[in-house]
User: What shape does this take?
Amino acid sequence: MAKRGPKPKSVTPPPVPLAGIGDPPECLDPEARDHWRALAALIDEAGTGSRLDRDLLTLHCAAWSRWREAERELSRPASEGGGRVIVARNGYAQPSPWQVISNDSAKAMRGYLAELGLTPRSRGAVEPATKIEDDPLLAFLAGKPPSGPKAPRTTAPKV
Assistant: This one.
């Protein structure tokens, strides 16, 4: 069976900017909040995010914090409970629970980064947000008068 061609482009409208992503939520630990601020600055600079992305960024930062904690634990010596492999009660080697947490968090982070347009592949697919004032349709939907030169008003010819 032949391939149908390239994946169609998304027909969803660009995100409506809502004054940037804002400050990190209190539910994040201090290290995750610092990571939030760094990523939010990059997203705001690129103009690709809005307050609608807050939950997604929160999930990413929480996963990032878990990943950092797991990697710290894995870097400890095996005699102190660290290491990537442990010996189970039955004598067989198995991955450390911290290794499982690290792997799961890294997998989750990759998905969140792609959704936010922060991976090389996804960066090209995310377009900068259009300012409400610059788009007459967005201005109309937001209940704001459009800016810029007004189009000449045309009337229907009288019959």
Summary: The two ends are 58 Å apart (CA to CA). DSSP finds five helices and two strands in the chain.
